[in-house]
Each structure stands twice: as structure tokens, then as C-alpha cells.
Write a structure and sequence with these properties.
Strand 4 and strand 5 form a beta hairpin. The strands form three sheets. Strands 5-4-10-11-12-9-13 form a seven-stranded mixed sheet, with helices on both faces. A six-stranded mixed sheet has the order 7-2-1-8-15-14, sandwiched between helices. Strands 3-6 form a two-stranded antiparallel ribbon. It has 373 residues and is α/β, with parallel strands linked by helices. The chain is built from 13 helices and 15 strands. It has a single domain (6-167, 263-362), classed as FAD/NAD(P)-binding domain (3-Layer(bba) Sandwich), CATH 3.50.50. Residues 369-373 have low confidence and may be disordered.
Length: 373
């Protein structure tokens, strides 16, 4: 691989910035195109499981991310009455994987990635709305165009597929936000309350903040505001443990948003000639999978390693898809199966989360790049 190989990245989210960093570190010449005027501050928080931290370590960011975020100790599944139904020992999982799990505010993660982008002098073009016709032009100018432009309106995905690929609404809303950490939340536990088709999760994310998500089955209502949905969340969870309404009442309203949650059906391919999609643009999963950011980061690591091994870009992209599709489809499937369970009226049972099985799934394929034959 020579330094003259040029990559255009569309989208400056987690996937796009991470790809820019790792590609540059591996000697590629990278430019990033982002339609917004600055990096996004939208979103509450992210849990980076050991597979994500593996990739961030390869990018030289493990320490920086660890210092900004929090290492949660347990995942607790709790019912409406506040009874803890199960505990996942995250420290045991981390030990098996060889990497920590870090929960972090999304704005802190984005700022950390962008600081690294600037330190590497990567060209970022903000305020650049890239449409389908622009992507075709970029494909002639660059050796590779990578679409990291999201699940809902990926222009890169439109170029790759002759027929429109539409995200699939899965019938529930997520109302998310950031609140000050309550004094009675101890032990850095990720707490997930589930019962009667409702779900409320809270995650420690910094020394003084946690992020949360309230979810329930819902029809799409484009007229309703986030403030109205927060009020609805307070009503729906009014008889649940008081910690939930405390977090809702103390939320930083600027951090809150409501999301009618969509995912994608597994796609038959992710590339066309020298254009490829990664992350949510390629394999968006539901938040119930817990693997959205982690799988995007795995894309980064695999794709750049494969490009280093194979000078013919289409062959590398084909191998990239074949390497990744089973794992990303598993994340999509798990997310849907859990959503169906969580948002139904059937009695809720704890999700079985054995550290050894999670390690086998999450760290699969990360010990070394898949070599091209």
C-alpha cells in the first residue's frame, strides 16, 4: 500500500471519524465530508464493549476514552417493583476479553475522536451536503469512497442499490437524555428496568452524569415534541422506582431527543465498484442489541486491514462484506428478538448473559485480520 491511495469519507459521526483516524494512521490520504457545520453533539451516551475498545486501542485511544468515561461493574435487569432479576459481572467479561467496557457521553466520545482527527491534520469539510450525484463524482476523484452517513438517509446507500433501501420502523420510541448522577446510584451499574412492555435503562457515563433511555411501543407521531414525550415518560413510569422519575425531572433538556427506532434488513452487499457503506448505513441494528457503535468500529478495523492486504479495491470490499456480514446480522437479529420480548405483554424473563458466551461472540474475528486468499 502506498501513501497515494486516497479515501473520501462521507459522514463525521463515530464511524466516519474513526475510519478517518485509523486510515490515516495506516498511511492513507483521507478527506471527510460532513453536511453539518460542526461535529454532532446530538445523542446521550454510548457503551463501548470490549470489542469496541480493542479497535480504539489499535487507534491509540484506549487511555483517552477510559479517562473520559466510566467502567461499569454490572448490568442489572430489574422489574417494575425494583427487584433485581439478574446481574452480569462486567469485570469478569472484561477479563475474559482482555479489554475494558467503557460507558461515555456521546459528546465526549465525539470530541475525543475529533481532537485526534485534528492532531493528524485530516481534512474535514463541514457544511458539505453530499448527494448521490456528488458521490459518483467523488468516486472518480478518490480511490475509495466510504459512506458512514447513517441509517436513515444514507446517500451512499442510494448510489449502491438500484432499488431504494428503506429503514424499517420497529414499533417503539426511545426517549433519551443526560441527567446528573443520583447519590443513590452506586457501584457504576448499568440498570435496565423492564416490565409490562416498558423499558427504562440508565448508564453511568462520567463522574457526575449518566445517560438514560425510556422506551415503549408507539406509532410514529411527527407532530409531537421531545418535551411532550418526556412528560409521557413521566406518566408511564409514575409508579415505578422513584429513581426513574428523578432522572426524567433532572434531565438536561438540551441533551434530550426522541427517536422512532428503525433498523435495516440485512443487505445482500455493501459496495459497488469503489464505493462502500459501513456502520449504520450498512447494518443498522436496534439499541436493544447494544452493539451499534461497537460493530461500526469493527468495520473500521477490518476494512483498513483488508485494504492494506489487497491493492484491488473491489476485491477487498467484497472480502470485507463476506468477513463482516454474519456478525453484523447476528447483532441485528439479537436486537430484534430482544425488542419483541421487551415490548410485549408477556411476563418478562431475564436475558441470559453469560460472560464466556458474550466473549465468544463479541471478540470473534478480532484476534487478527482475516487474510485474503
Amino acid at each position: 500500500m502506498q501513501n497515494t491511495r486516497r479515501i473520501a469519507i462521507i459522514g463525521a459521526g463515530i464511524a466516519g471519524l474513526s475510519m478517518a483516524i485509523f486510515a490515516t494512521q495506516q498511511g492513507f490520504d483521507v478527506e471527510v465530508f460532513e453536511k453539518q457545520n460542526e461535529i454532532s453533539q446530538i445523542g446521550a451516551g454510548v457503551t463501548l464493549w470490549p470489542n469496541a475498545m480493542y479497535v480504539l486501542d489499535k487507534m491509540g485511544l484506549l487511555q483517552a476514552i477510559s479517562e473520559l468515561g466510566v467502567q461499569p461493574n454490572f448490568v442489572q435487569q430489574i422489574n417494575q417493583r425494583g427487584q433485581v432479576l439478574s446481574n452480569l459481572d462486567i469485570s469478569q467479561l472484561n477479563q475474559l476479553c482482555g479489554y475494558p467496557s467503557i460507558s461515555i457521553l456521546r459528546k465526549d466520545l465525539m470530541q475525543c475522536l475529533y481532537d485526534k482527527v485534528r492532531a493528524l491534520n485530516i481534512s474535514c469539510h463541514f457544511g458539505k451536503s453530499i448527494e448521490s450525484k456528488n458521490i459518483s463524482a467523488l468516486a472518480k476523484q478518490f480511490d475509495l469512497v466510504i459512506g458512514a452517513d447513517g441509517r436513515m438517509h444514507s446517500q451512499t446507500r442510494k448510489v449502491i442499490f438500484d432499488q431504494p433501501v428503506e429503514p424499517v420502523y420497529q414499533g417503539f420510541i426511545n426517549v433519551i437524555g443526560v441527567s446528573p448522577t443520583l447519590s443513590n446510584l452506586v457501584g457504576n451499574a448499568i440498570q435496565e428496568y423492564r416490565d409490562d412492555g416498558l423499558r427504562f435503562g440508565m448508564v453511568p457515563a462520567s463522574a457526575h452524569s449518566c445517560y438514560w433511555a425510556a422506551a415503549w411501543p408507539c406509532s410514529i407521531d411527527k407532530a409531537a415534541t421531545t418535551a411532550q414525550f418526556i412528560d409521557e415518560a413521566k406518566y408511564r413510569f409514575r409508579y415505578w422506582p422513584t429513581v426513574i422519575n428523578s432522572l426524567l425531572c433532572d434531565a438536561n433538556l438540551d441533551s434530550c431527543r426522541h427517536i422512532f427506532v428503525h433498523d435495516l434488513e440485512p443487505l445482500p452487499y455493501w459496495h459497488k465498484e469503489n464505493i462502500v457503506i459501513i456502520g449504520d448505513a450498512a447494518h443498522a441494528s436496534l439499541p436493544t442489541s447494544g452493539q451499534g457503535a461497537s460493530q461500526a468500529l469493527e468495520d473500521v478495523w477490518h476494512l483498513i486491514n483488508l485494504l492494506n492486504q489487497q491493492r484491488q479495491v473491489p476485491k477487498a470490499l467484497n472480502h470485507f462484506f463476506n468477513t463482516r456480514i454474519n456478525k453484523t446480522t447476528t447483532a441485528q437479529t439479537i436486537g430484534r428478538l430482544l425488542a419483541r420480548q421487551f415490548f410485549s405483554d408477556i411476563p418478562q424473563q431475564p436475558v441470559k448473559m453469560a460472560p464466556a458466551k458474550l466473549r465468544m461472540l463479541w471478540m470473534q474475528g478480532l484476534t487478527s485480520p482475516n487474510l485474503l486468499s
